[in-house]
Amino acid sequence: MDRLWSPWRYRYVTKAEPVDGCVFCGLAAARRDEESLILHRGERNFAILNLYPYTSGHMMIVPFEHVARLEDAAEETAAEMMRMARRAASLLAAAYKAPGLNIGMNIGECAGAGVAGHIHLHLLPRWPGDANFMTTTSETRVMPEEIAATYEKLRTGW
To answer: Is 107 exposed, middle or buried (0-12, 13-18, 19+ CB in 10 A)?
Structure first.
């Protein structure tokens, strides 16, 4: 899908280094939260912005535990993931005044998971008409907010 304006993306791809292993495990271990867009660290999960957002505010809750299926996650991990998702939903509602919210997981490559080996829960604020003619006719999304601004807006809420 094309993007009309995404200057942060150019900065990312020009400094990107090859990833060995799992990208989520690598980001969590690096402990460079602002650079990695990690908003919050819980005991068993962390909240991170999606580097290629579907909408402004698109974040994910990711377990530190590297598991490919939801049923393989420890009970405590799944419970904290849901508590963090509830907190994230409140933050997104307050920060973006969005009347809707998509929450979901894509488990496995065939289900659309970009990182198929490590589960993660997506949270996306939604507005009436946000899938407008640009999306449907041009396969292009208009992102109204730079990702650094999104990070600052949501980081303070945790």
So the answer is: middle
Integer CA distances (angstroms), 108 to 69, 111, 117, 119, 133, in order: 8, 5, 7, 9, 30
Q: Which of 40, 58, 118, 120 is catalytic?
A: 120
**Cα–Cα dist 69/106, whole Å:** 10
pTM recorded for the entire structure: 0.80
Ordered per-residue pLDDT tens for the chain, 158 residues: 555 555 655 554 455 444 568 999 999 999 999 999 999 999 999 999 999 888 899 999 999 999 999 999 999 999 999 999 999 999 999 999 999 999 999 999 998 888 999 999 999 999 887 765 444 444 555 667 888 889 998 998 88
122 part of the active site = no
Q: Which CATH class is domain 2-14+38-73+84-155?
A: alpha beta
Listed by start position, the domains of the chain span: 2-14+38-73+84-155
